[in-house]
Predict the structure.
Amino acid sequence: MDSNTGPTTAPQSPPPSTTSGEPTADPAAVRRAAWAGFIGTSLEQYDFVIYGTASALIFSDLFFPNVSPSVGILASFSTYAVGFAARPLGGLFFSRYGDRLGRKWVLVATLLLMGGSTLAIGLLPTYGQVGILAPILLLICRMGQGFGAGAEQSGGATLLTETAARGRRGRLASLVMAGAALGTALGAVAWILAQRLSDEALMSWGWRLIFCSSLIVTVVAMIIRRKLNESPVFQELKQQAERPKSPVKEVFKNGRRPMLLVLFMNFGISTQSYTYQVFMASYLVTTVGVDKDFVPEVLLLGAICGGIAAIGFGTLSDRLGRKPVYTLILSALVLLPAPTFVALNSGSKIAITVAIAVGFILACQGAVGVQMSYFPELFGNRYRYAGVTLGREFSSVIGGGVAPLICTALVTAFSGSWIPVAVYMMLVTTVSLIATRLAPETLDRDLNVPADSTDPTGTPARQEWPLPTDGLAKARD
């Protein structure tokens, strides 16, 4: 069936709970979905942050000891990039089931894969113990992390956006990125505590304890996700037997435009996000010369600020619209790289902290907090999970996955100059800004219609299905 057939494949009559075509949000289901997205994304980000920090600080010594320090850092960031390369593969795999079997069980599967891979890293032998086998095993575990993460944030965002009531989607879906901020904060705390150990203890067992600690978060998230309800939108599709047999094929056939919009809208954000979270940690230590102990502390503060910003920008997008808020953030990010590097190279801890915090507020969590509702609203109901996942994860490969590697290579090639890195960050963000200007506004559109928001029949709900004031109040309660 063609997924862009417009209203002819939409529900024949609106559900009895509202006049809008969407079921009323169940408060208990919303709470469970919020906690599931929050905790699951915390685990994903925790896994990526502890790995990224380890890549910047110690993995070159543990797994690539027979090369120069600069080559060792490049090798460490290469394994980091491999995790992002595996993300679209995981996205392709899990997207087949997210729109067919449901959002819940895919999120359970990705959680187990991410948590298990991170635990395995903590148990790996080092180069000094098994030689070349050590980095090979590290690479395999990192691919497992990326494969599981390929549908994690997109799945959580889709589930929350489809579960929340109109007028609150931005705020509730942004909890996914508040969870990411918590994961970053937990990762920073883990490294702060580990760095209190002696160098010998840290390099022998301290780093292992950090990776093995992800087991705690995995168990908590699993308990919450097993009690999760499917989203009302998916339940509606299931009742009407409208689930697609091949969501990925339908995305490439009928949903290419919104998928490409997601890809390019996320490209610059992903690049800047992981530049702040990973590359700048290495840059501060190797180029600026700050103490290694300072890096996790500034990342912790940045994550706290970012988590608050994610909810703030998500809530703001419920009031002003997704497109203007997202455009404002991107415009600021185009101008931010040069002042950021000036602050970093000043060596002032206050200036460095402010620069990193602003980066987290805008790129790492703030912009992505808006994405969590904006991107799912771009798609129709038949392949929403697949469309969001594919767009975000392919952009993560060409964006965040290779960003630390490209930035390190640019600094090395240009004799330590930060200017090429700043230009690179500005250019990729400009691409995202242009894509955003081409995207439609999606605020409060009906998520049960099969038409994408880029389709003329996929206009926002406030234009097609105006609610009376009392109905809107009930839908938001």
Observations:
- Residues 1-21, 461-477 have pLDDT under 50 and may be disordered.
